[in-house]
Amino acid sequence: MLLTNGGGKHESERVKDLSSTLSVPLDTSNFIQSHTPFAELIHGEDSLRHKCIMVVGGEYGRCRDVAEQYGFTNVVTPGDIYMAHPEIWPFSKPFQRDYYASFARPLPKPINPTSPADSLKIDAVFVYNDPRDWGLDMQVILDVMLSREGILGTFSTKNGDLSLPNSGFLQDGQPTLYFSNPDLLWAADYHLSRLGQGGFREALEGLWRAVTYHKNHHKAPKLYKRVIGKPHKTTYSFAEKQLIRYRESLLGKHHPTKLKRVYMVGDNPESDIRGANTYESAHGINWVSLLTRTGVYKDQDGRRPTWEPAAIVDDVRAAVQWALKDSNWHQPLE
């Protein structure tokens, strides 16, 4: 099972690429990206299938394509909003013709401050992948979270009301804000780690504190959000269920031996190792963390990782060998 905080493409596309690169047969049943669990939100009583959702991040309109493949039918992007109303963030003008014009779609409704009933209403905001235009994306997200009921072009009269919880902020039917990846840093081609989606979220929360600050506030208003991805429990629980289903497809649903142990191999102590170490399985499965030296973590100067794994190994092959030995599997790895 491959569990990644990456994303930006549909699982089928990533599986095809990885199968070719690794020469290993993979399919979507054993591959989970950061935003894969969002597909579950088209089901149930509070289904967002036909609601207007705003998808943020990724290159061009690819994350919108992913959301539509998941089953969401009414998806807008900050690029759509910018092309319809470029005055919303004038600093994106250099990207207008060669970038946003190549994938933006007409809005289902305009932004109409004089008639909120006829204006674009956002029912949920999803950050699927690392945003490419931080300024525009942050501005539009702030506009939505400060609005009345997610109606763009409005500003909630409850904002700043000290008699209300959270000083009135996010008390007026604003949409839920979802993030798919909490990683502050990630291992890119550059020799030093680069800011990830977690960096974008931290910057957005810093702006939220600055915009909502008032000297009379007892405490700063919170930006309510739901964050998934490693190391969060939601993602590990989703992965465990998927892993059990995949195992049952191979061995049969009524196999006498149940899954007892999962080895979590990763290169990021704050996501991979922390997630495995803190996850409490509803099925009594023991998660064992193995940290590789192939990515974010570099054990230089004898420093130990912030979250201690069961073992630190050179690479994935060494991790598999360690796991086989730990499981009393004596057949050597080819």
Automatic annotation (TrEMBL):
Give a yes or no for keyword Transit peptide in this entry.
no
What Gene Ontology terms for biological process does this UniProt record contain? glycerophospholipid biosynthetic process
Q: Which Pfam families match?
A: Hydrolase_6, Hydrolase_like
Q: Which InterPro entries match?
A: CDP-alcohol_PTase-I (IPR050324), HAD-like_sf (IPR036412), HAD-SF_hydro_IIA (IPR006357), HAD-SF_hydro_IIA_CECR5 (IPR006353), HAD_sf (IPR023214)
- Which GO terms of the molecular function aspect are on file? hydrolase activity
Look up the record and report any one GO term of the cellular component aspect: mitochondrion
PANTHER family assigned to the protein according to its UniProt record, in alphabetical order: CDP-DIACYLGLYCEROL--GLYCEROL-3-PHOSPHATE 3-PHOSPHATIDYLTRANSFERASE-RELATED, SUPERFAMILY HYDROLASE, PUTATIVE (AFU_ORTHOLOGUE AFUA_2G02580)-RELATED
Protein name as annotated: TIGR01456 family HAD hydrolase
